[in-house]
Design goal:
alpha/beta; 7-stranded mixed beta sheet; 34% helix; globular
Length: 294
């Protein structure tokens, strides 16, 4: 099985006609994703040709959903237009919106997230500034490479795109149910806790891998959730053990102040919840292997 995305998902791509949209739509199709169209109000009515098919372009998310039955949208939209594009998708009632775009103003992210909650929370938002979500062998919504792993029993949730790919590759012989890149921005839609809750409920996910970064308290909150609600084994990694205090690090804009938000503090919180934590990605993969008997 999988969470959030499976072989029945019908995907549209907002910004499909742009260079990034075109490139990654082609990759999603090659991964077996059921991409059914794109959205660009300036190119509505056109078609875009790919290797073995042409996909229609619609003026709005609602139009695309009405014509194709789409339930997932992947957004490759320039930062100034992301807020309106997500609000449009939420108002159309789509089930999942994956916001790939980097550089979205935090105020805009907070606005469209609040709008989604205020309108009933029927649209799950992943991102922004994320690699997306992949259920290997079923569907791929985003930019995660589809050929570095296989279907399996590990569920992965990560703030970091690059570390998502590394752990997928290192544990490729076991495979994954779903890998979720939630993004490292200060305001995001789906959190570690949301993904962990879904993995706990997925009968075919046997082990959960959690990847975090310095700054904020998302990992500490995830640790508290795991301690109270999760019965499956969880292994973790926190990027930034060597990061100097007081210096903004990486795309997360993470800043460490005193002991708050440090990798060591997060590691301590995770281990207190019974989560095995590696100091490197490879060590984290080794911990997962030991639990799975490999």
């Amino acid at each position: 099985m999988a969470i959030f995305l499976d072989e029945n998902s019908r995907v549209i791509v907002a910004g499909m006609t742009g260079s990034e949209g075109l490139k990654h739509t082609k990759r999603m199709l090659a991964a077996g994703t059921n991409v059914v169209g794109g959205v660009n109000p300036r190119k509505a009515g056109q078609e875009v040709g790919f290797d073995d098919r042409s996909l229609p372009v619609f003026g709005t998310t609602a139009d695309a959903m009405a014509a194709t039955g789409a339930d997932v949208t992947v957004l490759f939209v320039p930062p100034p237009f992301v807020k309106d594009a997500v609000i449009e998708a939420v108002d159309a009632g789509i089930g999942l919106a994956v916001v790939i775009t980097e550089g979205v103003p935090v105020h805009d992210s907070a606005y469209f997230w609040a709008h989604a909650v205020a309108t009933g929370g029927q649209t799950r938002i992943i991102g922004p500034n994320c690699p997306g979500v992949i259920s290997p062998g079923k569907a791929n919504a985003g930019i995660i490479p589809a050929d570095i792993t296989k279907p399996g029993a590990i569920g992965l949730v990560s703030k970091s795109g690059t570390l998502t790919y590394q752990l997928m590759h290192e544990l490729r012989d076991f495979g994954f149910s779903t890998c979720v890149g939630i993004g490292g921005d200060p305001v995001i839609g789906t959190t570690h806790i949301d993904a962990i809750e879904a993995f706990e409920a997925d009968p075919e996910t046997e082990l959960i891998v959690l990847i975090g970064e310095i700054g904020g308290d998302a990992e500490e909150r995830a640790a508290a959730y795991v301690r109270e609600h999760v019965t499956k084994p969880v292994v973790g990694y926190v990027a930034g053990f060597t990061a100097p205090e007081g210096k903004t690090m990486g795309h997360a804009g993470a800043i460490v102040s005193g002991s708050a938000g440090t990798a060591a503090a997060k590691k301590q919180a995770l281990e207190a919840a019974g989560i095995a934590v590696g100091r490197t990605p490879s060590e984290t993969a080794t911990l997962a292997r030991e639990i799975l008997g490999g």
